Every structure is written in structure tokens, then in C-alpha cells.
YlxR family protein (Microbacterium helvum), 83 residues
Amino acid sequence: MVPVRTCVGCRTRAPRSALLRVVSIDSALVVDERASLPGRGAWVHETPECVDAAIRRRAFVRALRVSGPLDTQTIEEHIQRKG
């Protein structure tokens, strides 16, 4: 069995290895490349389309169950470097 997660951007299910885990630390989104940081995580495809959709729909805020806005600068920079 391969672990399956749902992308918060496009809402499709994919193997965990195909998605990027993101956690919230001090109201900022942090990329968890090794998927080992503590706390609640959200999974998203590592594409600009999925990340933009998740930010636009406030999906990270809901998935991570945080109150208030999140600083998305680090994940946007990560996607630009990969792209």
C-alpha cells in the first residue's frame, strides 16, 4: 500500500511521494521537504497552479486549522526556484 494524500490546491488524490508537505510555523508557511516537521501538515502538488489555487481559496488556512492570514512568501519562492 502506498500512502495517498489529497492536494489542497486541485483536490485530487495522489501518492504522498508526488506531493509537497507544508506546515505552519509562527503564521508562516514552511516547506517540509522531509515530511518530518511536527504539527499538522497540508499536502500540495509542487506546481504553481496548485499552490496559487490553494492560496486563492485559503485552503492552507483551513487545512492547517490556523486563525488569521498566513505568510505564503516561502512557499511561493520555493515553487519559483523549482519551476
In short: The longest helix spans residues 73-82. Strands lie at 4-6, 13-15, 19-25, 28-32, 41-45. The chain has three helices and five strands.
